[in-house]
Amino acid sequence: MGDPMNSLAVTCGARRKPRALIGALPTMVSIRKAAIAGLCGSATHSLLMIAKAQLGILDSFQPYQSLQMALIHWTGDYVHPAVPWLISYLNGSTLASFAFARLHRHLPGSSPVKGLISGLLGWLVMDLVFFPLLGLGPFAMRVGLGLRPALFSLLMMLTYSIALGVVYGAIGPNPSRSTFKKQSESLP
Prior knowledge:
The protein is mainly alpha-helical. The protein contains eight helices and no strands.
């Protein structure tokens, strides 16, 4: 009978197209790697934001509160304060990490360097697109604290993206047989 994908291709008159399309789709392994790395990156980012609040760093720069206010303005209804955190966490755990997984092989350097590069790109997008959408202006200059919010947002992005890159690179080709597991198996 042969390969069902080739049979499908023959009937469609396009012998190689189905395989090319399937090859472009992410595998379950890459999805799992991205999700695990994204969760780790989001967790480190959350720890930084908790430390920011506890230490009183840049009290008037509250990006999650600004997002909440923008959501209230856009929806015309109350938005719970947890919603911006959930949006950020889900974005970091899914969309941003999946985008990183797709770009990983195209970025130069080791996985941490790839994380650094993606963090710099993400920071530029956040500071030049999203901050103005939230009413903070480019690089959050409307907050009135000079470049400090922009520099802290760079730290926010790099904390997430470097952790993402380190974990993504540390997970082997099969997450169930990752580098972490191989190292623990070699211990006495």
